[in-house]
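Sequence only, no structure available. Ideas?
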Amino acid sequence: MLIFSHVNMKIKFELNQLVEVSNKVKNHLSANVVLISGEMGAGKTTLIKQILSLLDIIDNVSSPTFSIINEYLTKNDQVIYHIDLYRIKSLNELEGIGLFEYLESGNLCFVEWGEAIENLIDLEFNKFIISKKNNSRIIENKMSFLKRLYYYSSGFVIGIIFLLFIFNGKRASCNYGPSARVLDNILSKELTLESNIDNLNNSDLIEIISNGRVIFNKSEPNNKPCGKYYIESESMDLIIINCKNEAIIKIK
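Reply:
I predicted one. Tokens follow.
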């Protein structure tokens, strides 16, 4: 069974679901450097081979355990590197094979045993960890602390802005349609009640109009010089003559 979580992308899968999982991993790539970690035999090479096939590699794909770096070409002439750091034991060896030049080339680089260089590179990277659980595998997209902090703080800021939008009296609605725009336009004018009604003041009028709804099939917005609108609300219905600087209110 394929079990998928949206939190940092965590997938539990069987080996016969490798194609589907590889496609999900491919769709989660957001950087040119992709670090793949996991114990021996977890399936790092197998996963990368399957992702490479989804990326339309035209070369024969093989394990870079001994060559350390394999270079492949896609149908679109894009260069992709598959790197295996299992046999690398020191920083001097990394520099000797020109690893950092490959990573900084701007080409897509899949790096097995990527934890070996995680703290040595300043580049943006994706990190995936594969683990074994009985006959299943679990793959997780491990987001760095700074990246998590960035996303969570961005969400917090957006939430604060949204709350301020509400408290400022704006209509926090995903459907800010014609009715809301007409009501806002009316409320921007000087409100005049055509006849006095006991216990109805300007504040009451504003609340009634704010919570009302324009009945467009009864309204005459194109009347000159003032449009005519029918407003329905829970407490009462209104007829509003909407002029340039004044809105004259009649009780229906």
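Confidence is low (pLDDT under 50) at residues 170-175.
Hope that gets you unstuck.
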